[in-house]
Each structure stands twice: as structure tokens, then as C-alpha cells.
Target: Activator of Hsp90 ATPase AHSA1-like N-terminal domain-containing protein
Amino acid sequence: MAKWGEGDPRWIVEERADATNVNNWHWTERDATNWSSDKLKSLVLGLTVENDEGSCEVTEVGKLEGEASINNRKGKLIFFYEWNMKATWTGEDTLRQM
Model:
């Protein structure tokens, strides 16, 4: 850690009268819950998994609870999310049919 006054000038954030967050130097946070909820539903609904033993398909997303946010610090994106999902699916067992 540099001594007081000996730091890199790029580290110094100027005091601005308009309080502008230049280059996202300070933390910014945006709620992404609605977008990610819609995206998760669209990705999972209709998802099909198949192999030699059978197949299954997600037919309904019943419960989707949680939250998501996007944070920006010094120009870097940081994602936080926590979801609890319950889905209904149907499946077929091809081994029992043989």
C-alpha cells in the first residue's frame, strides 16, 4: 500500500460538484430480477434431455422465487443471484420398454 500522497494518480478520484460516477469507479447496482426471471423461464421451459436410457422434458415452471442484481465496480461487472425454482417435467424410460 502506498503512503499518503505517493499513490498512482490514476487511483485518485476527483471530487466533482455534479457527483458524476466517472468510468463507474464507485459501486453501482442494478436490479436484474425481472429480466433474469423471464430469461430463466424461457431457457428451462421446453428443455429436453435425451440419452439411451430415456428422455425428459420440462413442461411447466411452477415456482420461481429469488433475486438477481448486476454490480459494477471500476468498470467490472459482478453478478449476484439466488433462485429457488420448481418445475414439472414428463419423462420416458426406454429401458423398460425393451
